[in-house]
Amino acid sequence: MTRPTTIEVSNSLDVHGQYPWRLGQIKIGDEYEFPTRVFWLLTTWSTTGTIPTSQWYVGRHISLNSFQDFGSMEWLVDDCWTQVYSHDTFGRGIYGSLDLLVESVLAGKRVRVKINSYITEADNLYVRNGQVSAQLLGQFSKTSAYNFLTNVNWIWQIASITGDVETVRYDIGSTLNRLSSNDKESITWFVASRPWSKVLTTSSSGIVTYGSKANLNTSLQLLQYHRGRQYCHSKLRSCSTVYQVYQR
């Protein structure tokens, strides 16, 4: 089971999903273990039935292997996503409510953005002075919708409701920046509609300002999903940092 971090629809209406957050493993007896030299296992899943894979050693820009597999697939869709806002390349709203997007981010909702033909989930979200920006980290370079380059790079972006999109490309396992760019893009913002329940708020010194740590511990013991969030209160000129944990 794989949850693609980035989805793209090609001109032929085929769907291709990238997934970078997987490491290779080997089977020893009845158990699976990491190899002595751990490597990234980058894959693209396509409705064409192809599964291109590129393997790169962790911490070094050295390719281990690259191949193309084929397989039958089942594609499952979560209908919890709702389009809440979209804007043009200059950040002028053309659909929905910016206030609703800000409210959703501050309520701990998951967010996805659509830029051109691809959709990706935000890894980190920020609200500063009423402006929303998102870090998009789960992408890697390609020659087409699903084929790998010989030299694969991470693609990291910061997308903002102003229409600004900053992109950097770093070689996998290296500090070499292959490309940096600043572009203006039309962006559509989607929000997960599932409710999150706030169970705990703490100050920077760990003092409880809402809820209780006991409730959080109980939720974790029940194996309920949780995540941390850092945000800047939009009514303050300076950036206030608050960590909140939400229970679903």
Largest sheet: 10 strands, antiparallel
Secondary-structure element order, N to C: EEEEEEEEEHEEEEEEEEEEHEE
Number of helices: 2
Q: How many β strands by DSSP?
A: 21
Determine the N-to-C terminus distance. Answer: 21 Å
In short, what is this structure?
With 248 residues, the protein is mainly β. It contains two helices and 21 strands.
Describe the structure.
This protein is mainly beta. It has three domains: 6-70, no CATH class; 81-192, no CATH class; 197-247, no CATH class. Helices cover 7% and strands 51% of the residues. It has helices at residues 98-106, 213-221, and strands at 6-9, 15-19, 26-28, 31-33, 39-46, 50-57, 63-70, 81-87, 93-96, 111-115, 118-121, 124-128, 131-140, 153-160, 164-171, 177-184, 187-192, 197-202, 208-211, 226-231, 242-247. A ten-stranded antiparallel β-sheet has the order 7-6-5-2-1-11-10-17-8-9, with helices on one face. The chain is globular, with a radius of gyration of 20 Å. Mean pLDDT is 85; it is low at 224-248.
